[in-house]
Amino acid sequence: MLFERPDEAEAGLVTSAEDEVIRRLEAELVAKAIQELPDVQRRVLIMRDVLGYPGRSVAGALGLSNAAMKSQLHRARNRLRLSLGGTTGPIEGRHDPGTTGAWPV
């Protein structure tokens, strides 16, 4: 038998060939979308979100102020989200300043 316990397969310890192909295709789509970002946005996104460097380190390495680094990161994330078919609308449960002013419950 392949598993010592039957619940190991249910726990997701083994992926099917189909799951592996889907994972690779998604990774290729994300890599292509990142490559298409403007240079500064791509560098900020990779250093911050992929490599995990602290924001101040990223800003310093790229010669940006901390505020400019945050702005470029925000723009990069939004552009990436849009290119992958997402939206840039408000996240559910967050306040949208363009609404009547009521906070979501």
Helix/strand order, N-terminal first = HHHHH
Mean residue pLDDT? 81
Computed over alpha carbons, the radius of gyration is 19 Å
Gross morphology: elongated
Poorly predicted parts: 93-105
Q: Can you summarize the main beta sheet?
A: none
Ends: how far apart?
50 Å
CATH superfamily of the domain at 17-83: Winged helix-like DNA-binding domain superfamily/Winged helix DNA-binding domain
Helix content: 55-70%
The CATH level-2 architecture of the domain at 17-83 is identified as: Orthogonal Bundle
- In CATH, what is the class of the domain at 17-83? Mainly Alpha
Domain RNA polymerase sigma factor 70 region 4 type: 29-80
Keywords: DNA-binding, Sigma factor, Transcription, Transcription regulation
Pfam families: Sigma70_r4_2
Region (Disordered): 84-105
Describe this structure in words.
This is RNA polymerase sigma factor. Belongs to the sigma-70 factor family. ECF subfamily. It comes from Microtetraspora fusca. Pfam families: Sigma70_r4_2. The protein is an all-alpha fold. The chain has a domain of 67 residues: Arc Repressor Mutant, subunit A (Orthogonal Bundle). Helices cover 58% and strands 0% of the residues. It contains five helices and no strands. α3 packs antiparallel against α4. The radius of gyration is 19 Å and the shape is elongated. The C terminus is likely disordered.
